[in-house]
């Protein structure tokens, strides 16, 4: 049976005033099923009792012969455990855009998601109250060309503002941005917490060298896995294992994902469920 690990990040922020919040982040499931109907995943989520489940893209597998039933089954169980907010990845985007290839399957899937109560966020933002704390979640849907291989200039802050508006400086802003490739631009946009996937943890991770290759065949990709911080105008840096995120730093977390496709290879890079403990500064 396929296995996964749980990685927990503790984030301290002065935008959460009194009550700690817990989120589970899922990325890159790609129709993979753990055990019977993903029971091991749901048992873990149930035990964590999160305030929300955040999906950072690629729950589906965007191939012509791939079914959407595994993703629909996953969501139908997930919504029983917590509110689900879902930002698209390149596989969702591909299936929705290229109807000649995929037909209307994704439109039907999207309709089903809404009926379940899933918040599917395509360049949309929701603001809601959790335990008296105000949190905003935005799902970024970049134009498809930003997933092309080869050298690529990022969208920049202005283009991001055109797609998703500006963040509210007084609200804890979470950005679901599937590809971590443009981390510098996400930081510039102003998110407090950026959640990404897409690179599957770098496929292979080596001591001291980190993530080796991305699914789009880029060597040693930046922001490929783990926790990164940016404070003021200083460059973003990878956070050490024993360091605690504090103060007004911006945080980016890239998960290794729960599944894979095409290159089903993982070396020192287990499948991963990410847990986010967002704490008031005083805790």
Automatic annotation (TrEMBL):
<keyword id="KW-0479">Metal-binding</keyword>
<feature type="domain" description="Calcineurin-like phosphoesterase">
    <location>
        <begin position="21"/>
        <end position="201"/>
    </location>
</feature>
<dbReference type="InterPro" id="IPR004843">
    <property type="entry name" value="Calcineurin-like_PHP"/>
</dbReference>
<keyword id="KW-0378">Hydrolase</keyword>
<dbReference type="InterPro" id="IPR029052">
    <property type="entry name" value="Metallo-depent_PP-like"/>
</dbReference>
<dbReference type="InterPro" id="IPR051158">
    <property type="entry name" value="Metallophosphoesterase_sf"/>
</dbReference>
<dbReference type="Pfam" id="PF00149">
    <property type="entry name" value="Metallophos"/>
</dbReference>
<protein>
    <submittedName>
        <fullName>Metallophosphoesterase</fullName>
    </submittedName>
</protein>
């Amino acid at each position: 049976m396929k296995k996964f690990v749980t990685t927990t990040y503790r984030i301290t922020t002065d935008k959460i005033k009194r009550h700690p919040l817990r989120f589970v982040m899922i990325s890159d499931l790609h129709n993979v099923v753990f055990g019977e109907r993903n029971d091991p995943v749901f048992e873990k989520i149930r035990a964590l009792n999160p305030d929300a489940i955040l999906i950072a893209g690629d729950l589906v597998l965007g191939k012509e012969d791939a079914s959407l039933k595994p993703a629909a089954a996953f969501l139908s169980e997930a919504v029983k455990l917590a509110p689900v907010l879902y930002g698209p990845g390149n596989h969702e985007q591909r299936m929705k855009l290229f109807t000649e290839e995929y037909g209307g399957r994704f439109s039907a899937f999207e309709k089903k998601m809404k009926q379940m109560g899933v918040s599917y966020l395509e360049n949309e933002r929701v603001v809601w109250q959790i335990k008296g704390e105000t949190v905003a979640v935005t799902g970024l849907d970049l134009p498809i060309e930003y997933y092309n291989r080869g050298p690529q200039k990022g969208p920049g802050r202005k283009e991001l503002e055109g797609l998703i508006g500006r963040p509210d400086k007084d609200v804890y802003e979470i950005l679901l941005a599937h590809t971590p490739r443009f981390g510098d631009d996400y930081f510039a946009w102003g998110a407090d917490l950026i959640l990404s996937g897409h690179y599957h943890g770098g496929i292979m991770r080596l001591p001291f060298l980190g993530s080796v290759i991305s699914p789009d065949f880029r060597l040693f990709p930046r922001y490929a896995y783990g926790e990164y911080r940016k404070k003021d105008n200083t460059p973003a840096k990878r956070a050490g294992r024993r360091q605690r995120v504090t103060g007004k730093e911006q945080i980016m977390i890239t998960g290794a994902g729960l599944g894979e496709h095409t290159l089903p290879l993982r070396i020192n890079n287990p499948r991963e469920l990410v847990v986010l403990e967002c704490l008031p500064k005083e805790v």
